[in-house]
Amino acid sequence: MSHQHESSPEDGGWSGRRLADADPGLNLRPAWRLADPAIEADAIAFWHRLNLLPPRTGADERVRQLAAAAYRDGRLIAVATVYLEYFAQLRGNFAWYRCAVDPEHRRDLASTAITVFTRDVLERWSAENPEEAVLGLAAVIESRALADRRRDPVWANTGLNLVGHNVRGEQIRVAWFAHARVE
Ligand SMILES: CC(C)(COP(=O)(O)OP(=O)(O)OC[C@H]1O[C@@H](n2cnc3c(N)ncnc32)[C@H](O)[C@@H]1OP(=O)(O)O)[C@@H](O)C(=O)NCCC(=O)NCCS
Fold this sequence. Notes:
The protein contains three helices and seven strands, in the order E-H-H-E-E-E-H-E-E-E. By secondary structure, the chain is an alpha+beta fold. The protein has one domain (26-176): Gcn5-related N-acetyltransferase (GNAT) (Aminopeptidase), CATH 3.40.630.30. The structure holds coenzyme A (COA). Coenzyme A (COA) binds next to strand 4 and helix 3.
């Protein structure tokens, strides 16, 4: 599926495609703390096929971080993971987010859709597990594919807004959960 779209300043400096434009045939499934064997097996095969596991990260470790999966026509095309870690700069715990989209399915808003979905899954889980004190979804923007979008501090679709940079100069973005409260 491909979309025709153009950039316009009214859209905040990027193409302005909205989540509503994402493929309605995308089947988004939660995975966080569900240990769903079918999603786990599909995700491991996906990571190996696309050679996405860094040398020191085993598939077992990454599987425990599974947060959501996106299927199209019964085939896994995008995977989202998170790990929980304290973020000193914002004095709270965050769900640190990563996602990968099958190269054949990129530029179709799959990553946008799975990011919004994962944010909602983690937000609900965090509200139900207040002892974990997770305040939001956080992401380090590593991908060169997102270079053009870096100039926009606010990402309206996902709510991942700029909050700072890490020591490597990469952007750190956070989508606060609605129930988050700071000291
Ligand atoms: C980065 C990645 C997740 C983007 O997935 P995607 O499904 O193609 O992203 P979307 O279709 O939701 O794109 C959202 C916006 O990102 C930007 N973007 C994504 N890929 C881009 C590319 N190759 N070139 C320029 N802009 C790009 C665009 O602004 C796009 O909106 P637009 O198409 O309306 O211009 C995907 O390229 C990927 O899996 N890369 C490898 C793994 C990785 O780097 N993950 C990120 C680390 S967390």
